[in-house]
Each structure stands twice: as structure tokens, then as C-alpha cells.
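Module 6 notes. Inverse folding takes a fixed backbone as the condition and produces residue identities as the prediction. Think of it as a translation problem where the source language is geometry and the target language is the twenty amino acids. Below is one complete input and output pair. Work through it position by position during the lab.
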């Protein structure tokens, strides 16, 4: 059984956009996460807050239109085919974000996300350089920037792998994830 099999598996924008990281260790590890979840079908279900979906769009919209046009078909198909529950924050999440001592010092968007994760008893899978250095939070790191890349890069199903390869015109610096 996977260690996350009994809790909600949350993802953030850093993990999703990590598939386009200029750092190969982060890119391949992020891609492997999504390829595995997609292959698992319903059992691969993940949860993503509406804000995190928007953070992905905000990052992509900073690129020129041609890059966006090459990127978005991949994002659209993966968001359709992968079991992703997109959810809003609840009032309890907002309250927890600003009262839970373990979240002190984090930026507001990370406090809100982690409050949501904690409230649902979940784990956050992330490529966030800042969150990778935190202790005592329900965070699962994907890969650290600069780490050795895995030997073999996983593949999506052919229809999606083709879109992914095309989408790689968009690359993101680790500090921008």
C-alpha cells in the first residue's frame, strides 16, 4: 500500500508546474508523480485548491502567446483525464491558516493551502523550495533542485506524451515555481 493511500493527496502549483522546471530532477520527478497518478485511474485521485489552479494559470500567462498555445493543450488534457478534485477553501481553512502555530512565517497562499490540507487530514506533494525546508507539516517533497535526475524519464500515454513534449517550450526556473 502506498503511504498516502489513506489520506487525501493534495498537489500544488509548484508540483504541477514542476513538470516544466528547468531543473531536470524536479521536472522528471514531477512528471513521474503525475504519470503514476494517471496510470492508477480513480485510485490516483488528487486534490487541488482553486487558488493553486489559478497560480498555474498566472505563471503561464506571463509567457508570450505562442508559448501559451503550445503549453495549454497538455494542461487541459491532463486536467481532464487525471482524477483531480478542485476545491475551494472553507471558512475553517481560513481561520486555521492564521491561528495554527506551525504555519507562522509562511506566505498567505501557503498558509491557506496547508490549512486546507491539515483540515482534511491530507498530505501535500510539492516541489516548493520553501516548503521542502519545513518540518512538522504534512508535506511530501518531490525532488530538490539540483538533485541528480532519475535514470529513466517516465512517459505519459502516447496521446498525452506528444502534448507534453510540445508543451516543453515553456520552462520554469526553480525559484519561480
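Target side of the pair, the amino acids:
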Amino acid at each position: 500500500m502506498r503511504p498516502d493511500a489513506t489520506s487525501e493527496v493534495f498537489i500544488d502549483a509548484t508540483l504541477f508546474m514542476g513538470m516544466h522546471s528547468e531543473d531536470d530532477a524536479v521536472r522528471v520527478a514531477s512528471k513521474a508523480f503525475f504519470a503514476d497518478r494517471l496510470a492508477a485511474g480513480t485510485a490516483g485521485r488528487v486534490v487541488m485548491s482553486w487558488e493553486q489552479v489559478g497560480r498555474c494559470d498566472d505563471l503561464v500567462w506571463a509567457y508570450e502567446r505562442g508559448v501559451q498555445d503550445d503549453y495549454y493543450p497538455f494542461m487541459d488534457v491532463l486536467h481532464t483525464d487525471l482524477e483531480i478534485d478542485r476545491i475551494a477553501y472553507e471558512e475553517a481553512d481560513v481561520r486555521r491558516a492564521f491561528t495554527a502555530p506551525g504555519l507562522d512565517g509562511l506566505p498567505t497562499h501557503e498558509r491557506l493551502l496547508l490549512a486546507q490540507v491539515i483540515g482534511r487530514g491530507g498530505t501535500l506533494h510539492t516541489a516548493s523550495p520553501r516548503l521542502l525546508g519545513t518540518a512538522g507539516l504534512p508535506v511530501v517533497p518531490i525532488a530538490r533542485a539540483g538533485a541528480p535526475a532519475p535514470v529513466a524519464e517516465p512517459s505519459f500515454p502516447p496521446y498525452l506524451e506528444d502534448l507534453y513534449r510540445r508543451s516543453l517550450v515553456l520552462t520554469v526556473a526553480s525559484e519561480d515555481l
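Reference fact for the lab report: The chain has a mean pLDDT of 93.
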